[in-house]
Design a protein that fits this description.
Elements lengths: L7 H67 L5 E7 L2 E11 L2 E10 L2 E11 L5 E8 L1
Antiparallel strand pairs: 1-2, 2-3, 3-4, 4-5
């Protein structure tokens, strides 16, 4: 058997390589974790922006539905369309006569690429407007 003696200098170099490899692995893991956290933050931010736009689009759709009701209140025979631009978005409404004093108001609000719609069914317009349903549609 041949025994090879390692000099003290050789052992220091071996320990240096092990330390260097350990530091590189720790940096790689730390970088991967930091990158994952950044990606999660970006995804969460995008989701938050979409939710904000969705709430604003719903508020715009409700606003246009109210505008359609105001048009009916001003002129009971009103049927037609209209639109509004408010803040960061727009909305449109359509009032249709579904027979007698029944009316339907369909409104949509758009903010960015998010669109929300509501439909309002009216069963009487005089002396007061009677709303039988107000629901969000797809």
């Amino acid at each position: 058997m041949i025994f090879q003696k390692h000099s003290m200098e050789q052992r220091v170099y071996d320990n240096g390589y092990i330390t260097l490899i350990s530091v590189l692995i720790a940096l790689a893991l730390g970088s991967a974790i930091a990158f994952s956290v950044v990606l999660l933050g970006v995804g969460s931010s995008r989701n938050s922006i979409s939710m904000d736009q969705s709430y604003k689009a719903k508020a715009l759709a409700d606003t246009c539905a109210e505008e359609g009701l105001q048009q009916i209140r001003s002129a009971t025979a009103f049927t037609g369309t209209g639109n509004l631009s408010l803040g960061q978005g727009t909305c449109t409404y359509t009032v249709t006569n579904t027979g007698g004093t029944n009316r339907t108001v369909v409104a949509s609000g758009t903010v960015g690429q998010v669109v929300r719609r509501v439909q309002v069914s009216i069963t009487a317009i005089s002396p007061k407007i009677v709303i039988s349903s107000w629901q969000e549609t797809i």
